[in-house]
Automatic annotation (TrEMBL):
Short name of any one Pfam family annotated for the protein: IspA
Segments passing through the bilayer: 6-27, 39-61, 67-88, 100-119, 139-157, 166-188
Listed InterPro entries: YciB (IPR006008)
Compartments (UniProt record): Cell inner membrane
Keyword annotations: Cell inner membrane, Cell membrane, Membrane, Transmembrane, Transmembrane helix
The family this protein is said to belong to: Belongs to the YciB family.
Membrane topology qualifier: Multi-pass membrane protein
Keyword Transmembrane in record: yes
Job description of the protein: Plays a role in cell envelope biogenesis, maintenance of cell envelope integrity and membrane homeostasis.
Protein name, as recorded: Inner membrane-spanning protein YciB
Main location: membrane
Amino acid sequence: MKNGNPWVKPALELGPVLLFFLVFILKRGETVSLWGQDYGAFVLATLAFIPALAVATLIQWRLTGRLAPMQVATLVLVVLFGGLSVWLNDPRFFKMKPTMIYLLFAAILGYSLLARRNWLQAVLSEALPMDAEGWRKLTLRMTLMFLGLALANEVVWRTMSETTWVYFKTFGLPLILFLFLLANAGLYRAHGIDGPGDDAGR
């Protein structure tokens, strides 16, 4: 954030997710009637999550003047799959949303490797300076991780309870991402450089 408090960005990113979780937990087992339609806790939480994410994304854009492509893609998929869940009153669409997001990210990163254009390096090189080989390794690992997360999401929502999926989505997936970044500390050290490389984006 430009000249802002350091907690603003995490609050904007985590706020909509925590709102979804709280609405689901508070209304779990209940039915709420809106516009002549009865909604369960999951779809009601989805209905709250969509505008919350849109507002949070708009605030980030106003504060920074830019949005990462992944933020835009996430918002579009949330509106699409979340909107289908609310419109059809069917939680399955929103549960599939993380799968679609992770497959999209894996496809983008995988293509960048095949095309020898490391877009991850181009986006993050200022925050995490590494040489080109380090970025290639990290991109490959992230591609495989996103494929694994897509598979994990499918297994959880198709075979476990709705409550289990909500806990998995709210806490499990962020924890896995955090552990992944932590596990690659050796890669950052081995391939770190003093500043952004001259070959960013290749």
